Amino acid sequence: MTLVGNNLFLGFWTVYAALGIAQVIFQFTLSFSFVVAGLIASLNLFQIALRHVLRSPVSFFDTTPMGRIMSLRVQCS
């Protein structure tokens, strides 16, 4: 092969390597953003659920079997 052929061949591999590296960076960024978005969404859902449970009326816990068990436990202490 000539010098021009070698440079052309290396040029193709450089383009393919650059595309591969760009794909890796894009995929990592996309995956990381999905993880962060999922974490934020789950924390928001948990905070809303916790807020509603803590602000629910006591009568709900008195009529619910788990509420009765917990209230008995508190009364025995």
TrEMBL record:
Organism encoding this protein: Gymnopus androsaceus JB14
Gene3D superfamilies attached to this UniProt entry: ABC transporter type 1, transmembrane domain
Protein's UniProt name: ABC transmembrane type-1 domain-containing protein
TM segment ranges: 32-50
One of the record's GO cellular component terms: membrane
MF (Gene Ontology): ABC-type transporter activity; ATP binding
SUPFAM superfamilies per the UniProt record, alphabetical: ABC transporter transmembrane region
Residue stretches making up the ABC transmembrane type-1 domain: 15-71
Keywords: ATP-binding, Membrane, Nucleotide-binding, Transmembrane, Transmembrane helix, Transport
